[in-house]
Amino acid sequence: MQSSLFASAEPQRFMLQGGELTLYPQWVSERKACSLFRWLEKSLAWEQSVIQIYGRPVVIPRLNAWYGDPGCNYQYSGYRLPLNAWLDPLSEIRTRLHDELGVETNSVLANLYRDGQDSVGWHSDDEPELGQNPVIASLSLGGERRFSFRHRRDKTMPPLHLTLTPGSLLVMSGAVQHNWHHCLPKSRKVTAPRINLTYRKVVTV
Ligand SMILES: O=C(O)CCC(=O)C(=O)O
Ligand SMILES: [Fe+2]
């Protein structure tokens, strides 16, 4: 399935077995998405982390940075990201997620895909510190990218391909992380960098 670029700002819902995705195509205006992108690109504590895959060091093909409440520690693939204190524009989005959508978070993982060669491979956000069935709210800024889901076990389930446009918010909830993997593939068609803010709730603070 391929989502089209909706002119309407109506949320789109996708029922995935055991979970749900809600895509708000224009959660942030184009103008605001643009200024936020520029500010985040120059202001966040970006680093290119080195993770462990099958015991070997791998330099991730993107930059990332971690912000959150004190004690919100987050580790993936054997690497613990340094925790940074909230910056106002990041906490403003956190407050809006809570007030408008009832999504409670205490941290945010920012990703910067510098070009089409930057990516994130198939994974699910199922680290123990996020608890069972986490709600993850993901804001896209900058260049548009494709984002795909495939079932973790049942290969007969059709994959889902979304296009994440600047200003769009994707909320993943229910058993999405338990049942599905997601990825942001490399692409030769990409012409602009992208920043993604994935708001999360670390439950083992
Ligand atoms: O860039 C994205 O939209 C998603 C990134 C992601 O899946 C992650 O940080 O866990
Ligand atoms: Fe993820």
Please tell me about this protein's structure.
This protein is 16% helix and 39% strand. With 205 residues, it is α+β, with helices and mostly antiparallel strands. The protein has a single domain, classed as Jelly Rolls. It has an 8-stranded mixed sheet. Strands 10-15-12-13 form a 4-stranded antiparallel sheet. A two-stranded antiparallel sheet has the order 3-4. It is globular and about 45 Å long. Mean pLDDT is 93; it is low at 1-7. Bound molecules: 2-oxoglutaric acid and fe (ii) ion (FE2). The site of 2-oxoglutaric acid has 11 residues, from β9, β15 and β16. The site of 2-oxoglutaric acid (AKG) has 11 residues, from β9, β15 and β16. Substrate binds at residues 74-76, 126.
Q: How far is the N terminus from the C terminus? A: 38 Å
Q: Report the C-alpha radius of gyration, rounded.
A: 16 Å
Class of secondary structure makeup? alpha+beta
- In round numbers, the mean pLDDT is 93
CATH topology: Jelly Rolls
Count of discrete structural domains: 1
In percent terms, what proportion of residues is strand?
35-45%
Q: What's the helix-strand series? A: EEHEEEEEEHEEEEEEHEE
Poorly predicted ranges (pLDDT <50, ≥5 residues)? Answer: 1-7
Helix content: 10-25%
Ligand types: 2-oxoglutaric acid, fe (ii) ion
Q: CATH homologous superfamily name?
A: Alpha-ketoglutarate-dependent dioxygenase AlkB-like
CATH class: Mainly Beta
- The strand line-up of the biggest sheet is 1-2-14-11-16-9-5-8
